[in-house]
User: Fold these one by one.
Assistant:
Number 1:
Amino acid sequence: MKFKAILFVLLSLPFLISNTNNHEYYVSVTVVEYAKKEQSLQIISQIFIDDFETLIRKRFDESITLAIDDESEMVDTYMTKYLKDKLKILVNGKTVNFTFIGKEYKDDIAYCYLEVENVSKLESIEITNQILFDVFSGQQNIVRLKVYEKNKSFLLVPDNDVCLLNFN
């Protein structure tokens, strides 16, 4: 049943991501890929711009507007602070910190680029993703892990916000 739910969300995602400001589904997608050669986890979190803007306005600054030419310099600071609070990563059972590399906007989506460096060996990875759970009760977060030729997807909801993948 869980597989069907994940498949439904993944197949529906192109329809959910449209050029309208209103949408009835609240979904983010976070892709975590292990780059063995670079010994790093490369992460892209995709979040609807209007949802992220709503969050930043409620949490940090009511005057912030995203994806405009004269966007506040504080946006990256707010995004970094929020993502570090709501996205937790454990590698081999130990908490690791990511670096916010930057962001870009495409269509209605904010793409946030993150990286965890110095990951020489990956035996397990655990992700806690609570992005936007504090703003939208219907929020769902898809986490896709691409590690050692394995691809695994998880659908995280407020009552189940952790996924774990072991490689032993």
Number 2:
Amino acid sequence: MADGIINVYKEKGYTSHDVVAKMRGILKQKKIGHTGTLDPMAEGVLPVCLGNGTKLCDLLADRTKTYRAVLLLGLETDTQDTTGVTLAEYPVAVTEEEVKAAVLSFLGDYDQVPPMYSALKVDGKKLYELARAGREVERKARPVKILDISVEEIALPRVTMTVSCTKGTYIRTLCYDIGRKLGCGGCMESLLRTRVGQFELKDSLTLSEIEKRRDDGGLADHILAVDAVFLEYPALTMKEEFDKLVHNGNPFYRNQAEGDSPAQDSPVRVYDSQGRFIGIYALDREKNVLKPQKVFLGGNK
């Protein structure tokens, strides 16, 4: 069974769940998970976790993401993208300067109302299920953050933007909100995710490329080891006589491991004496021991 993370290029028309199902068939293993959904019309980077790496799914879903989006002004739809039913059309009588100013005004903290066509739940029901049943419910605005936003090209009524943002940001809704601010409406015409944390577009592989590398024996070179996600943390290696502590998920004293002393409050990567990655540990100040925070038990064997 493969353990780690593979950078998949999700193509248009596939859901994130479709990608996972196809990866299970390609790799002949069940323990596979994705790290946050991409709409079927969107494409680009989708880190997929394998084996023990599936414990990283939630963590990677929290990482900063970067997108290239095309905003189509003058059109509003029920899905906030061009796959939806048209709700309204407006003339686009704005200048390039007005477009740039409206786009850049969303930089920073931003309260965003999630779209009805989303997987968020209200009273136990997914919003898109309610939307398909013809119901619209009130949604509370959620705080998100646009870390960086720039206009790459303006060819009205289209505006190409690059956006870096925090978890939970809907680029469809950002396009809708920019259109509203300009007074002419807008929706998302296309979306390409170019980065999730350390995973970049240039390193991603399509499903057919993954299948080819499986057949030619080169796929292992494209599977990132679990511990590579945590390289910013200092590393400790257990002394052999204390391996049993970490193999059983127990805390240990600092002098039972070798390596640089971590900075105060810094998590650490812990390896057994054979160099196998155990997990992420943090200092318990009261007991003066390092306690497990996330255990992978040799996830990079």
Number 3:
Amino acid sequence: MKQVINPPDLAVALQYDGSNAPRVTAKGKGKTAEEIIAIAEQHDIPLHTDIVLVDMLAKIPLGDEIPRELYLAVAEVIAFAYLISGKQPESR
């Protein structure tokens, strides 16, 4: 049985450069979500499951920065990604 990351197979990819707010760079359901997840896995990009957060992020247009209301939730995800990947955030 295939593991479902976020029902109903919804995925959102964010890009964070350390200086601006994270941007939505990919999103999709079904087959597109599977492709986003597969690409992330191929590139050792950490995956995080949060059904409520992914639903909110999926409503943001591609290329847009996340709204201020989601900063804390996304910051926790970024911190999680740094933790499991062994990276250190850049200090500014």
Number 4:
Amino acid sequence: MTPDSLGTTGSSLGLLPTVLALSLYTVVTSITPGPNNMMVLASGVNFGVRPTLPHILGTSSGFAAMIVIVGIGLGTVFELYPLLNTVLRWVGAAYLVYLASKFARSDAPDGPDSVKGKPLGFLGAAAFQWVNPKAWVMALGAVAAYLPAHPSLGSVAAIALLMAVINAPCVGIWAAFGVGLRRFLTRPAQLRAFNLTMATLLVISLYPIIIK
């Protein structure tokens, strides 16, 4: 990663503050509550950390792909065609409602060999980033703040890789928290109440989309 790759000039010493700032931005935006973290938390409660790993890796990989696509010019497309923003917001809202309905009706598997349910997979989690409002805010913010006006593909890829590497453990913490929380959800009724609560929180997360 070079100084120019993050939109800085001067010696490599000038790169460090930019990398640190981008890293802090990624930690704060990745670890704070949002649709991804709520879904991973619920997956940790219902399935455990290991079965949730594809979900976590899909989230980070899909987000990295979004950074690359936005960085090489998709953000300009949204500026030229504002209607795309509206379409994307409402498609994302519809998908979040669908996921919330699945949470509300879900039960945890009875054991490791149960087939009553399964966590979101790698591809599903990666695809979800494209309709996740928080992911778009993170991607557009990072590209605007940490890349020059006309970045090279290498510079965009460098930022995408750095953010993905930081994002994965931040999201994974929520799965681990879910496993710990599961110890207190020992009855089926308690677990159903938790899943209903997570479904409600997903719907509430639509508020910024609706009022925008």
